[in-house]
Design a protein that fits this description.
The chain is α/β, with parallel strands linked by helices and about 100 residues long. It has one domain. About 30% of the residues lie in helices and about 10% in strands. The protein contains 3 helices and 3 strands. The protein has a 3-stranded parallel β-sheet, with helices on one face. The chain is globular. The chain starts with 6 loop residues before the first helix and ends in a 10-residue tail after the last strand. The relative contact order is 0.21.
Length: about 100
């Protein structure tokens, strides 16, 4: 649930070089989809920052989010935490 860090996830991602995180929704959309098994990009930021992860890849986008939506989401996510990238087909990520 956004705003309440899951201690199990924090333990798994503590100090990770890269966290690939299911960010299907935004915090604003999430209440309509509670229990669907997906999270928000904002919760991913909160978890990664709490776990001192270095970088995070947002993946598993809602099919209703078009390219324009994703461009704005990526810009906002990077403003909130510079360690954010949005996964795309054929992306190559250098970690280290």
């Amino acid at each position: 649930m956004p705003g309440k860090p899951d201690q199990n996830i924090l333990g798994l991602i503590e100090g990770a070089d890269l966290v690939i995180y299911d960010c299907t929704y935004t915090d604003a959309e999430y209440p309509k989809y509670v229990g669907w098994g997906h999270s928000t990009w904002q919760e991913g930021v909160r978890l990664c920052q709490a776990a001192n992860a270095k970088q995070r890849a947002i993946f598993h986008h809602d099919p209703g989010h078009d390219d324009t939506f994703m461009i704005h989401l990526e810009a906002e996510a990077r403003r909130v935490w510079n360690g954010t990238i949005v996964a795309r087909e054929h992306i190559i990520i250098a970690v280290g």
